[in-house]
Amino acid sequence: MCPVVLLALLCSLLLLLLEVVAALSVAFNPMRVEKLKQGNLARVSFSAPALEPRFFSVASDNPYVASVTDLNVTETGAFVNGTFTVKGNFLGHAKVRVVANGTESNEFLPVSVVRKQSRLSLIFTVSVAVLVSLNYINMGCALDMEVVKDVLRRPIGPVVGFFSQYLAMPLVSVTVLHSRCSIQALVVRKCIMRVWLNPAAAVHCSLTGEAADD
């Protein structure tokens, strides 16, 4: 093996090992923040090994969705414990990481923000539920069971509707599509043959022009 290639492989392996060693390991509690409502706050704690110099910060990859405030860090022996507050700003997902001395942690805190249910949305949901219930009641009152029994005995209408919607219409659509594509391909072939036999006719050849008339 070429010594230059071997040296390059060794350097790559050394850089990879340095990156693994320099990586920061963090444990979050809770491990994830799910369904955080807009405008609400969630308190999160974390634990990480103490590094020199001791400079910790917390960053969100999408502050528009979730932002981080009120970071407090305390050192207890070989570990550093900290707490911070996550605020839900808008619907979506975000990842919160701890940064120590410019090195981001491998672990991240997943945050999902949902819409906060307002009084207006609750009124709308209840109104729709009441209207749908009344509609079902009206339909039940208007039903004539004798007519329903006659339709079930001779289900000509439902069978025709089912056949038309789920069998006839898809087959007709596919047939029309294939026939149209075949016609266009035939027109293109005629144009190519015409231009090949008579290059002067290239100006007059088009998909909807003389070639289609032939």
How would you sum up this structure, described in words?
InterPro entries: Na+/solute_symporter_sf (IPR038770). Keywords: Signal. With about 210 residues, the chain is an alpha+beta fold. The protein is about 45% helix and about 30% strand. It has five helices and nine strands. Strands 2, 4, 7, 8 and 9 form a five-stranded mixed β-sheet that branches. It has a four-stranded antiparallel β-sheet with strand order 1-3-6-5, with no helix packed on it. A hairpin with a 2-residue loop joins strand 7 and strand 8 (about 105). It is flat, with a radius of gyration of 35 Å. The two termini are about 70 Å apart.
**Poorly predicted spans:** 16-22, 206-214
The N- and C-terminal alpha carbons lie at a distance of 69 Å
Shape: flat
Helix content: 40-55%
Mean pLDDT: 77
How would a crystallographer describe the biggest sheet?
Answer: 5 strands, mixed
Give the oligomer, counting copies of the same chain as homo and different chains as hetero: single chain
Following the backbone from N to C, one meets helices and strands in this order, namely HEEEEEEEEEHHHH
Number of strands: 9
Rounded to an integer in angstroms, the radius of gyration calculated over CA atoms is: 35 Å
Strand content: 25-35%
User: What is the count of DSSP helices, taking H or I runs of 4+ residues?
Assistant: 5
Supply the helix-strand structural class. Answer: alpha+beta
InterPro entries: Na+/solute_symporter_sf
Keywords: Signal
